[in-house]
Amino acid sequence: MSIYELKSTLTSMVTVHESLLTIAKEKQTVVTNGDMPSLEALMKKETTHIHGLRKLEEKRQQATYAILAEEGLVKENVTLTELMTILPPDEQDELHALQKQLTDIITPLQQQNELNQQLIEESLRFVNLSLDMVRPETDPGNYSRPNAQTPHQDEPPEPGRSLFDSKA
């Protein structure tokens, strides 16, 4: 019965990872278009999927430990590859196929997430550059002496900073 639970859990993990890949591709489009409300909605959806994956991983570990217990073995942090060595060949083949499906979906998911990270970093650089261009200069010109304080000022402004701070 534990083998069935393990297969079912791995199948569910493949499905969730496929869904995460779809979300990651949607995020690329949304980030490129600068659609922040859609990005927030996708991130909430992604968070829900990740929470579900954590539960599936716990379930996978429990099924793995149950299989080991059925075989009379006690071992912690067992990988799927290690587990397959103690199973009959037909079960090994099915688990190997599920393992391959999982790795085949995780690799493009990682690549897509890295691309999204780069796009977001580029967007942040653009926003910071835009803010630097909008931020007023603090050069007082010839109207005041260096290090002189006006009667209404407790502290002089920092060099290079204006009174209008537009950091996000």
UniProtKB/TrEMBL annotation:
Presence of keyword Amino-acid biosynthesis: no
Listed Pfam families: FlgN
KW Glycoprotein (keyword) present: no
The organism's place on the tree of life at top rank: Bacteria
UniProt keyword list: Bacterial flagellum biogenesis, Cell projection, Cilium, Flagellum
Region (Disordered): 135-168
Organism: Texcoconibacillus texcoconensis
Protein name per the record: Flagellar biosynthesis/type III secretory pathway chaperone
InterPro entries: FlgN-like (IPR007809), FlgN-like_sf (IPR036679)
Gene Ontology biological process terms from the UniProt entry: bacterial-type flagellum assembly
